[in-house]
Amino acid sequence: MPINVDPAELAKFEALASRWWDPESEFKPLHALNPVRMNYLDGYVNVAGLKVVDVGCGGGILTETLAKRGGIVTGIDMTDAPLKVAQLHALDQGIEQLTYRQITAEQLATEESGQYDVVTCMEMLEHVPDPASVIAAVHALLKPGGWAFFSTINRNPKSWLFAVVGAEYVLKLLPKGTHEFKKFIRPGELSKWARQAGLKTIDFRGLRYNPLNNSFKLTDDVSVNYLMASRKPE
């Protein structure tokens, strides 16, 4: 079976790896987003003492937060340089109960099926050739009753205007070419893939970015960036 990665997508994030933890870099919005998405998770589950895997962890911004909350965390990604940055940053911060691996969700699911209480998969699905395959792997990784959280970008004219034109060309928050509009995912598609994998969709929430103060907030508007909470039945 071919590995579910896009070499061009990996190359984008490899090139930016050294700036991952710079809050004024291209990852400035990601740093602003992290507390909001973590608060969203907190509304459903306390990760302290739970086994957690962060799929598509990149340089480890969310991964470290999960570990600081007491989770026993594994961060996985297929990029080499960002993973090295993540490992060094965790070492520098003295964070324990945190492991990084260069492996796909599908490969990990064959090794550790049914081993995790929580799976996060944030800003990753729009960068792989087969998002449904990742979601199926997330289901396989979870214990019965486990939680899965996803975030991605909707596909419509408004999301193209805000997430591509606005973020990459006008505000220059992200490097040009970071996103491909055709890879964006409608909530109905994400929910369908989750249902086909065996996950129950619990909630959708939108994320609204304010570039004037570099802040995100949760909203009922899922037309651009959004989160989804789902659960594996007991």
Largest sheet composition? 8 strands, mixed
Strand order of the largest sheet: 3-2-1-4-5-8-6-7
For the secondary structure, the number of strands is: 8
What number is the mean pLDDT?
92
Taking all Cα atoms into account, the compactness measure Rg is 16 Å
The SS-based structural class is alpha/beta
State the CATH class.
Alpha Beta
Report the end-to-end length measured between terminal Cα atoms: 30 Å
Order of helices and strands: HHEHEHEHEHEHHEEE
Family: Belongs to the methyltransferase superfamily. UbiG/COQ3 family.
Enzyme class: transferase
Protein name: Ubiquinone biosynthesis O-methyltransferase
Organism: Reinekea forsetii
Could you explain how this protein is built, in words?
This protein has 234 residues and is an alpha/beta fold. Helices cover 38% and strands 25% of the residues. It contains eight helices and eight strands; from the N terminus they run ααβαβαβαβαβααβββ. Strands 3-2-1-4-5-8-6-7 form an eight-stranded mixed β-sheet. A hairpin with a 4-residue loop joins β6 and β7. α2 packs parallel to α3. The chain is globular, with a radius of gyration of 16 Å.
Summary keywords:
234 residues, SAM-dependent_MTases_sf, ubiquinone biosynthesis, EC 2.1.1.64, UbiG_MeTrfase, eight-stranded mixed sheet, single chain, alpha/beta
Write the layout of secondary structure elements.
Layout: H1 7-15, H2 28-42, E1 51-55, H3 61-68, E2 72-77, H4 80-93, E3 98-102, H5 105-111, E4 116-122, H6 131-141, E5 142-153, H7 157-170, H8 187-197, E6 200-210, E7 215-219, E8 225-231
Parallel strand pairs: 1-2, 1-4, 2-3, 4-5
Antiparallel strand pairs: 5-8, 6-7, 6-8
Catalytic activity: a 3-(all-trans-polyprenyl)benzene-1,2-diol + S-adenosyl-L-methionine = a 2-methoxy-6-(all-trans-polyprenyl)phenol + S-adenosyl-L-homocysteine + H(+); a 3-demethylubiquinol + S-adenosyl-L-methionine = a ubiquinol + S-adenosyl-L-homocysteine + H(+)
Binding site for S-adenosyl-L-methionine: 37, 56, 77, 122
EC number: 2.1.1.222, 2.1.1.64
